[in-house]
């Protein structure tokens, strides 16, 4: 069975681009963070704003490896896809891909990211909260995604 992804479609905006009209590469990292926020809130049913704001928990990036394959340009639609690669005791390893939406979608950018659950009270890593693990289990069951 093919691995199912969480995905978000978005338009490349002027604010995403450099003077040449292509996505300025740090903007992909902003898009990655937004994708994780959407995955938590919509995919895992764990409200990301409350996770950080009310519960004072964090999800900093511990590791990020990426390859830029093809430019994305202002006005294009792209799809950002997230796959859960590994669940650790305190971290999640994610595979991320950004593709164009034309007839033959082209990969624009790929990344592997490790995010760590932390307490914002002392900036130390903590075990992944139970509701996040439960959300992952529900999401995997619903999507057919199995590690």
Flag low-confidence runs.
none
Secondary structure: number of strands: 8
Number of separate helices: 3
What structural class do the secondary elements suggest? alpha+beta
Shape: globular
CATH superfamily: Hotdog Thioesterase
Beta-strand residue fraction: 25-35%
Q: Give the strand order, joined by hyphens, for the main sheet.
A: 1-4-5-6-3
Roughly what is the average pLDDT, rounded to an integer?
93
Through-space gap between termini: 12 Å
CATH topology: Thiol Ester Dehydrase, Chain A
Strand count, sense and barrel status of the largest sheet are: 5 strands, antiparallel
Give me the strand/helix succession: EHHEEEEEEEH
Rg, alpha carbons: 16 Å
Can you lay out the helices and strands and say which pair or pack?
Elements: E1 6-11, H1 26-43, H2 48-53, E2 57-58, E3 61-68, E4 77-87, E5 91-100, E6 107-116, E7 118-119, E8 124-125, H3 130-143
Antiparallel strand pairs: 1-4, 2-7, 3-6, 4-5, 5-6, 7-8
Keywords: Hydrolase
EC number: 3.1.2.-
Enzyme class: hydrolase
How is this structure best described in words?
Helices cover 26% and strands 35% of the residues. By secondary structure, it is an alpha+beta fold. The chain is globular. InterPro entries: HotDog_dom_sf. This is Thioesterase family protein. Pfam families: 4HBT_2.
Short descriptors:
alpha+beta, globular, Thiol Ester Dehydrase, Chain A, 147 residues
Précis, in short:
With 147 residues, the chain is of the alpha+beta class. The protein contains 3 helices and 8 strands; from the N terminus they run βααβββββββα. The chain is globular and about 45 Å long.
